[in-house]
């Protein structure tokens, strides 16, 4: 029952009824994506898991005010970003706190059997192509293409304009296509007469 509920319904059940099953369903749905996002910033699986755990603890602590949150998914990504940056600040002596200056680790997630069929070589080429993207491009690419967020949601999470998100994604897609010419669909050959 809970697995089929949308995020807004789960949010409402948590806020109104302190429904632990709704909370667990929300965690099951969003935690893996939030952990990938955090990992791309903190570069530690353990730290990313800790960050997301802290995010959901914070969510439970403020459950009575959740009805005021318009887009819970954007809210949780924003908290995850802030908690990840706080982790970096606490952990490193000279932290880089600008997304433009960070070396963001790409996370390639293969979720279905068709994707798993990709060879290790292709996955490595994709990973290298993603690494060649500027840090902000990498994060935007991940949030839009892997996590399925809308441009407006990504803009809100990263405090950018929607136009910047669109342009950065266009740059990312263009650079990926240039770096991976063998992965493009083959063009039909014209037969000269």
Q: What does this protein look like?
A:
The chain has 2 domains: 1-95, RNA polymerase sigma factor, region 2, helix turn helix motif (Rna Polymerase Sigma Factor, Chain: A), CATH 1.10.1740.10; 98-182, Arc Repressor Mutant, subunit A. It is globular and about 65 Å long. The chain contains 9 helices and no strands. It has helices at 7-17, 20-42, 45-61, 72-91, 113-116, 120-131, 135-146, 151-158, 162-179. Helix 8 packs across helix 9 (162-179). Helices cover 65% and strands 0% of the residues. The protein has 193 residues and is mainly α.
Could you outline the blueprint of secondary structure elements for this entry?
Elements: H1 7-17, H2 20-42, H3 45-61, H4 72-91, H5 113-116, H6 120-131, H7 135-146, H8 151-158, H9 162-179
What descriptors fit this protein?
193 residues; mainly alpha; Rna Polymerase Sigma Factor, Chain: A; Arc Repressor Mutant, subunit A; 9 helices; 0% strand; globular
Order of helices and strands: HHHHHHHHH
Q: What is the CATH architecture assignment of the largest domain?
A: Orthogonal Bundle
Radius of gyration: 19 Å
- Shape label: globular
Largest sheet descriptor: none
- The stretches of 5 or more residues where confidence is low (pLDDT under 50) are none
Q: Determine the fraction of residues in helical runs and give it as a percent range.
A: 55-70%
A few lines on this structure:
With 193 residues, this protein is mainly α. The protein has nine helices and no strands.
